[in-house]
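Structure in, sequence out. Go:
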């Protein structure tokens, strides 16, 4: 019971933001609700949620794992200026799994795609 409450609080924390938070950021958010939760517990629950497919684990190459409560196919932009990860809407890529299946004969279950560059906010700041 306590265990599932923690797990739900962690999932709710990830869902409450659009920033694709790191484990440390999730820990800070969840601690407001469950002050005695440990970082280890947060990590363990994040692994279990990700393994169950309830959340996505995103690794951008900067070495820090980030988490996402949106598990539908969608794409990410990793900004090299602010280090942020945001969602991208690219409906034209919707047929990618089917294309990959046709091209390879493989059974495609999911894909992940990260675009690297400068996010709109950082780009605007740089150009001002
Ligand atoms: Zn940025
Ligand atoms: Zn996302």
């Amino acid at each position: 019971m306590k265990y599932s409450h923690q797990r739900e609080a962690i999932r709710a924390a990830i869902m409450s933001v659009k920033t694709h938070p790191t484990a440390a950021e999730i820990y800070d958010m969840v601690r407001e609700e469950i002050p005695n939760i440990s970082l280890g517990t947060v990590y363990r629950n994040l692994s279990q949620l990700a393994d169950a497919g309830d959340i996505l684990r995103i690794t951008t190459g900067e070495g820090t794992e980030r988490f996402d409560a949106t598990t539908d196919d969608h794409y990410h932009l990793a900004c090299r200026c602010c280090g942020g990860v945001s969602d991208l809407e690219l409906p034209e890529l919707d047929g990618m799994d089917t294309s990959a299946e046709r091209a390879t004969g493989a059974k495609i279950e999911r894909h992940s795609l990260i675009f690297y560059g400068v996010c709109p906010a950082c780009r605007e700041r740089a150009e001002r």
